[in-house]
Every structure is written in structure tokens, then in C-alpha cells.
């Protein structure tokens, strides 16, 4: 058998010519089959895929629409810009890895150098910077941020995956690692600062490398010189291109930022959340509105993108362009806002807050507010202003660390470092074995221990808060009384496994003390970069008078927060000018504004509406912010300052801040009383200061005095609580006092004034809350009532027009780029309240007019014959904070028949008088008796004019 | 014997072979012109020189040439040494000689020279062929030029030459014993090669060679750099479909016009054939080349002289294996090796060498026909 086969093979092989012919026939048939497969069977697919590969559809961005005020004043607009982009498009792939890195680095270096020569700013997002000594440091706000950055650097998904060695990397280590040939292979010939710039761009490219469609920008809005340089050197600067973009700009940004918002690059989440119908018009590289009108009207402002088809060769060069469709610019939005009115109201609030603050500043570092019996008497110690420089980032701690030797900044920073070390050691000793209960610590140590347990260890996922039962006795004891030793608490958490597994080794017989040591070591290592902890320490250093006011002023001047000539600096330095005087002057000159200091009172709001249409003429949230610094690309330092700032600039105080309406609510209670017939115009209640029908006895604000006998008009005029307590008691009465009945009646009438729903304003808004308990106190606007200024604006407008509830609106019209009107926003009426008697409306108005007539704020208006109806409202926040003040009102008879309703509110503003002052000034202004310039020229009143009243 | 063959009748010429060769050449010129008009002119000159050389060699008695086999070997070795020391470097390879008006690629010429040499050498030693000593000398004689070519570096030409020489040795009368041994050795060598290729940091095979093979094995993984050219070639040929995108088109939707296939005038000329002339053109080229190969074999088959048979088989194998490898690379059947497509790829030395080869084939055929006509010998005796 086998022999047979061998014989046969031998036979064939003997005719070698035949084998050759057969072999080659077979080989060529194989080729034909292969060609048939490629060209005939799969040819169509290959051609289709190829066409896709070679044609690239490019979107052309449209210009974003402008935003105008009601008089056509430009508030937000786009400006054309040239941006520099870098992409690794594969044209360098023919090089070896090292060569490619070298080439890429030199291209980046060349680009950056030429940009900087033309004074263009390089986008810098890398979290390592260089100090004045040339040392690298992490520019991160917290240790978590630093560790996340490290995880990104080492290509780890989470911090847990980092080795201990990696976690302990210094900034220097990171730069060395990234410069090595494992990563970017950055040549030693580059100086440390150039190296950092190259790494910044390379790292940004690395972060974007998996998302094919996200571009890496080197600089935005570059000069024409740079555009020319890059265009002329495209052959040399492989991968670098200049593309046309646009920059968003805002005029008078701080006044309008709370309405307009800002734009920014769309986030992945935002993109995915877009509804299907609009998703087509967006791409992952787009700029969209992030807040305010920019966000809510993004579709209108965005415009429609154009497109073109490019035919590209293998190196990405364009061979041909076709199918060009031009983009159509976005529509322009016209607001109902009167910009001058808006700016005036904003400035008035800022000035009034300054006027409130100035006389209350005392030259004392430490001051205990809870010692004041009356919140009206709370003072503002200068120490609080000093410490606000640190807590509100008016002084940058990182900048201090990196300041030159010999400066006050450096000097204080070194003191801070040793102080911090001492505190850290003390804290760690306490964590290991506490000497006393937390409640017995000094207030300073209390702060630190609370920070470590409640914030640091929780934020770092070491104490697992979600595993901790809320009814845990130890947890409760810690949070409520603090009668716990910190070390006991920590041991307890470890024993009950409320601690991250990373700190518990696998061996069973691990001593608790070992785990504590491990945690302490972690804390010790990580507090170094913890900005919040640093701020806390600096605060206490101020209160312990380790840092003096003089030093703070000098640091602020060194960092450029204040601009001063050497003469002044010398005076401060020598003590000729005290820090108290200096800062007092700065506050009085509005160089240090209440919004910047962030010390109560530091915020306010004002909404001015046409009560007959619901159109908002001014919607002020104080303090504002500079949205130019957030649009286009975010100024991270500025953004961090805003989000951690005590005055909450990013929060809309007019539409989001919600608190009790106080006496401004009394018109609701009066209406409820009149409409349920428990009172009429002739019903009198006696006020002796204290309401004794329920217990504990609620008081009238005039207590221990009394208002005597009051009817409804008088009670509104004098804001007599007692009258409304009685009224509420009476309509709650159903054989006995029935709180639920009272609450239902109050709710019913609050709804009739539109207080049950959001105002409808086109901004983020907080839902109003109508009190559900305690009808008596709710009747004077306390209880659980909580409304935004925008809700109160609907309410006062409804009183002004006697029963019509308009939705508030900021929008006037939308036009296309040719100025043709596309959409006009007509007033939208929500409800018309018809079942309130005319006599009721009259009584409310009479009371409110009387109140303004009696009020000294409105003296000027009275003299000019301008009739204002209004109501003050004071609401108590707590015994440690000054009361919130507010004023609602509207213009009555005036020569030009102007229709305006006003809401002015300032949290912690020591009562309502100041809000009434602002409203009075605004009335004078809108009726034309004083101009904006004249108002601003008046200067700051710093007299000690404490006024009582409600 | 005289150097120049006389008594040639017009009908002694193998017109099937001549026409086939010229058709393929003209097709090649047209396709090259589609790549760039410059190549059209240059290749036209090359083909004209080639035809002249073909006619010249068709009249020279190949047996006379073989008697100078020592000189041929020496000449070839000297040329390769000159390249090694004085050659022009292009893309890290030293393959070309610049002799003033022309660049010249000795390794292309080596193919025909070595076919002639080994035929002559093995014919002289045919009685002692299966001696170990003779085989050893053969291996050493083959190793010298192959090593020089490998050093250029030009692995693909080395492998093709090795294959051709092997075929010549087999045809010349290699015993079955050695034939089987050689087959087993070949299989083992290929196996070792593929094992080495899989080892990441091996030192035997140059990195770029290794990557090419790996890229061929896993195109997705290596797409970015190594196999991009080959992948693009496959897609380009496929996208040609039945009739192609047309020669001389200025359509942007072709791989050629969008520069996706570099060096398309040499190693990847078949990509242009496939893309622009489609399956029809590709088939024509493959079939014509196949016909040339088979015609060569038939000439050898009919030759009454063993030498003629060996040379014809060697030349046929040369054209056949080079055509096959080239097209197999462009269609992705083989890893990327730098082999030109006979008669079509741009290159003067290559074209002229091939035409010399065809000229020699013609002469073998003519010699057979003259002998037959002279009716001196019984044909059958020689089978």
C-alpha cells in the first residue's frame, strides 16, 4: 500500500516539467479566485467603504446669536477668533516611537514659542506648575484632585489602582516620568519651563486620544501674526492647524451674568441627554449654553451648522471641497430687561450692603455673636474680614507658597507651614489616643477634628458614610453633643467595619492600632495638598492673632488684589495706617465689596416687573460674576473661587434663594380674614405685644410695647403681628382652635396670589413652599413659608393689578440675523382671581400706601408726589445671624402712568428698612426724579443709623 | 558551433510568446502612464531596449553563452560587490548603481545571470551532480551572490533566487534521496521561521521583516503602520470591481489619486491595475503572465537539449514565481515583500533582464526547430 503510493508519487515527479506546469497553473488559479473574491464578490463593499474613508464631512459652526436688552443694548455677542489645534493624524507614524516623540515635541515647542512671541496665551490645563524658584508643584485644590490627576497620569481608572510608590510621587517625579522615553521622550535641551509647556499640550492630547472627535487646542483667539506664522509653516508644523472659531463676550458682565449665564464646551453627559430631535444640530465639540438664558434658549441662539465635503488624501491634505452649505447664524434674543435699571438696582444693593456693614465693623479680632440678645446688635469684627481673605480666596494660598523670598507672603507662608505641622501632629496624636471628649476641645481643635472626621475621611472614602446607620448611637453622639473621644470613635468605626477595606489587611489578627496608624499616616501625607484644611488653619491663625491684619493687607497688595503705591505700603508697614483703617477705607470706596468679602450681609436680589404684563424689567442677583471668565474656556481658579465663595455668586439669589416672606405675607392673611368674614374693615384687635391665646406666646415685633387697637388697614400700615395672630386664630376656629383649618385657608388664599407655583421666569427657580403647620405664625409669613423673590414678584404684581396672575418672563422677542421678528413673547396670564371683593383690594392697598407714607425711606417720593404702595418684611433666620430683610411694593399714581412692581431682598440685612430704602430710590429713579449718575454720586452713608421697625 | 545562429526562418520565431510579452509590456506602459506620464516615457524606452536585446539574444546560440559560465559568475559577483561598496542608498537599501546616465540594479540582472551560470555549471557536472562534494560546491556558489544580495538588503530577491536555483538543481537531475531531504529541510525551515517570527524580541530576523509578517497575520493589530500599505492595496483592488475606475481618470475617489498606495509604480503596480481596470484588466494581466510562463515551460519541454530545458524551466519559474508573489502580496495572500511584477513594474534593469530571458527562450525554441527541420535526429530519442 505505502509502496504503491510512493511509486505513484515517483511517477509524477519523474515528469518534472508536468509538475512545474501543474504547480503554476494551481498558483495562478488561486490568484484569479482571489481577485474574483475581492473585486466581484466584495467589490461593492470595498468601494463603498473607501468612499466613506476618503470623503469627510465637515461641520461649519454657525455664529451664536446676540442677546440684547429691551432697548437694543448689546449684552452678549460672538467675536470671530482664530484657534490653534493640534492633532496626531498619523502623518508621523512612519517614524519610530522615539523619533515621533521628538518630532512632535519640537513641533509643539516651535508653535508655542511663536505664539508666545506674539503675546498669545497658551491654554494651560496641566495640574503641575512652576513656582518662582523654578520648582514644580501640584496646582490642585485638594488631595483627591491630586490623586485623581496621578491616576490619570499613570493611566489608572481609579485612585485605588495606584501603587504606594505612585501615590507618593512628587511633582518632580511626574515631570521626570512624563519626560522619559516611556512617555513623551522630552529632550534634555528644553528648559524646565519649556518642558512643562510641551507636557501640558502632550498630556491634553493623551487625554483626548480615545475620543476621535474631540480636538486638542493649544491656544484660542490668537493674533494675526501667529495665524500668518502657522499658515506659512504648515509643512513644518505637522498636525497643527488654525481653525476659525468664535469667542463669547459679555458687556457689563457682573450685572447680567445671573440672567444670561455663560457658555462652555458640551459635556458628554449633556450631549447624551439631548433629545433626539435636536441632537442632530449638536456635536461633541460644540459650545452650548451652560446656565441662564444661554442655556434655556440655546436652540435659538445656536444657529444651524453648515457643512462641506472634503476629499482627503492619505496624509489628510484636502484634494477637493464640494457640497458646501453655509451655516446660518443663530437668532438674536431680546430681553425685557432694561439694562440701566438692572445696573442701577445692582449698584444700589451693593452700596446699601456696604452702608449696612460699615457702621457695624468693630476693631476686634474675636467676637462672640451669640452673646448679643438682639440680632440687630450683631457686630462685624474686623477679624472676620481678615479671615475672609483666606476663606473666600481673595488671597491665593498657592501663590503665597510660590512667592519670592523676602515677601510677606513667603514669610507668612513659612509660619503657616510650621503652624500646620504642629496642628497636624496634635490632631494625629488625638486620633491615636484622645485626651478628652470632642466637646471639651478648644473651638479651634473642635473645628479641626470635625473637619477630619466629617469631611476629610468621608471625602476620601475612608469612613464609609453610606455603610454607617444613621441611628448609630456613636454617630449620633458625635454629631449632636460631641461627647465622644475622637480616638474612641475611630476605633468604633474600625471595629464595625465602617472603614475602607484598603486600610484593613487580609490577616485576621490585625491590631486596631495598626489600622489607626495606617489611617494617620494617610492623613499626614495628604493634608499637605488639602486647600480646605489650609483655609481652616489660616482662619484660626487670624483669630489666634498669629497672622495680623497688617500682614493680610500686605499679602493682598503683593498679590495684586489691591493696587497701592509705595507710599501707602510704607504707611501700612510702619503702622502709620492700621489695617482696620485701611480696609475700612477700601470698603467705603467699594474696592472691597460686600460680595467679595462674603461676610453677612453679602447678598441681595431685586426683581422689577411690569405688573400688567409680567415682563421683568430687572432681575438682579447680587453678587454677580464675570461670565467672560467662564465662557470659551473656564478660568479654573476663578471658578473654584466662585463655587467655594460664601456669597454664592453662581447661585441666583433672585430666583433660587428662598426664605420666609415675613410681614410681606400679611396681605395674604388679611385677604383670608376678610374673605372668610372673620374680620371686616371695622374689626379691631388690641395689641399689647404678646399673643396669649396659644402657648408659647408669639410676640409682636413691637414687644414689650404694643400697638393698641388696630383694624386691618392699620395692621398692614404698622405691620402689627397681633392683629394677624387674632385673625388667623379666628378663621382657624372650628369649635376649638383647628390648625389644619387655618393652614388650608391660608394656602387657598396664597394660591389666589400665585404663590403656589413657580413664577415661570426663564431661569433656574426654586419651588415655593407654603407653610403646612402653625397657622398663627404662618399668618405673619413665618412658620414654614419659604418663597423666592421671583414668587414674591408674582404676588405683589397680582396685588398691584388686583387679581391677575401673570407668569414672569424675561423674553421680549426673537429675531433672525436679518432683524426680522421670528417670535414675540406676549404676556401670559396664568389665572385671574375674581372672587376677592373690591373692598378687600382697596383695604390692602390703603394699608400699603399708608405704610409707605409713614416710612421715612419714601420721603423723597412723597415730596415728588409719587405714590408707592408697599410692605416691609423681616424674617428671623436664627439668633446667631442678622434678620433677613425684604420689601415688596408697586408704583401707584404717578405723572406718566408707569407700572412697576418691586421686590427687594437682602439676606441677613438687619431688617427690612434697608430694602425699603433701595425700593424708594428705585421709585425715584424710574419716575425720572434722579438719574443713575446722580444716584451713584451720592456716596456711601456710613452714619450709625440703626432703625428699628418691621 | 558559431556564436550567431544562422539558417533562421521567420516561422522559427515563437510568435505566441513574443506577442504575449509585448501585449503585457504595452499594458504595463499604459498603466504606468496612469500613475505618472514620466514613467510611461521611461518604461517605453526600457521596453524598446528590451525588445532589441530580446532580438539580439534570440540570434545568439545559448549553448555558446553557457560555455562562458565561469565568466558569467565572476561578472555577476563583481557587479554585486560593486553595489555593496559603491551602490546608491535609497530608503536604507543599497541596491542601485549610478552609472551616469542611468541607474542600474544588479540584483535584477543576477536572476538571468545565475540561471545561465547554474545551468552551465550543473551541465558540466551532471555526472557527479549527486556527489556530496558537487552539491556542497553548488551550495557555496549559490551562497556567495545570495549573501551579497541579502546584505543589500533584499530578502525577497534572495528567496526568489534561492527558489529558482533550487528548481534548476532539481531539473538538472537531483536524486530522489536529496530531493526528499531538501523538501523536509524546506518545510522545517519554514516552520522555524514562523516560530521565530512569533517571538517578540528575537535577533535572527530584522525587526521590519518580522513586523511585515506579523502585520500580514494580524492586520487589525498592526494596521497603523506595517500593513497599512497592503490593506489599502487590497481595498483598492477590491473597489475596482468588474470594470475598474478607468485608466487616466482624475477622480478623487481612487486610492491612487488620493496617495493611499505609495510606490505604486514598482511593487504595487498591480494595485493600480486592479483599481483602474477592474477584474477584466486584472484577469488579462494574470492570464498573459500565466501564458508566458507556460509557453516558457513548453519551449523547455520541446527542447531537444537538456540545457535548453533547464534554462527554459528556470526562466519560466522566475517569471512565474515573481508574478505570483507580487500579486499575492497586493491581494493580501502573502506578507508584504518587495517584489516587482514582471514586464509591468517600472524598472529598466528588470525589464531588460526579462527581455534577455525571453530572447534566450526564443533561441532555445529556434535551435529546436532548426534541429527538427534538419531532420537529423529522431525526436523520441530525447524523451
* Number of helices, counting only DSSP H or I runs of 4 residues or more of chain B: 14
- The quaternary organization reads as heterodimer
Number of strands of chain B: 3
Category by helix and strand content of chain A: alpha+beta
Number of strands of chain A: 29
Largest interface by Cβ-Cβ < 8 Å:
A-B, 40 and 48 residues
> In this structure, how is the largest beta sheet of chain B organized?
3 strands, antiparallel
Q: Approximately how much helix is present in the residues of chain A?
A: 40-55%
- Rg of chain A is 35 Å
Distance between the termini of chain A: 120 Å
Beta percentage of chain B is under 5%
Shape of chain B: globular
User: Average pLDDT of chain B, to the nearest integer?
Assistant: 84
Walk across the major sheet of chain B and give the strand order. 1-2-3
Q: What is the helix/strand order of chain B?
A: HHHHEEEHHHHHHHHHH
Q: What would you say this structure looks like, in words?
A:
The complex is a heterodimer of chains A (950) and B (383). With 950 residues, chain A is of the alpha+beta class. Helix content of chain A is 44%, strand content 15%. Chain A is built from 38 helices and 29 strands. In chain A, the strands form ten sheets. In chain A, strands 2, 3, 6, 7, 12, 24 and 25 form a seven-stranded mixed β-sheet that branches. A five-stranded antiparallel β-sheet of chain A has the order 16-15-29-28-27. The N and C termini of chain A lie far apart (120 Å). With 383 residues, chain B is mostly helical. Helix content of chain B is 67%, strand content 3%. Chain B has 14 helices and three strands. Chain B has a three-stranded antiparallel β-sheet with strand order 1-2-3, covered by helices on one side. In chain B, a hairpin with a 2-residue loop joins strand 1 (88-90) and strand 2 (93-99). Chain B is globular, with a radius of gyration of 21 Å. Chain A binds chain B through residues 10, 13, 16-17, 20-21, 24-25, 27-28, 30-32, 34-36, 38-40, 42-47, 49-51, 54-55, 90, 93-94, 311-315, 319-320, and chain B through 167, 170-171, 176, 179, 224-225, 232, 234-242, 252-253, 255, 257-260, 274, 278-279, 282-283, 286-287, 289-290, 293-294, 297, 300-301, 309, 313, 316-317, 320, 324, 327-328, 331, 333.
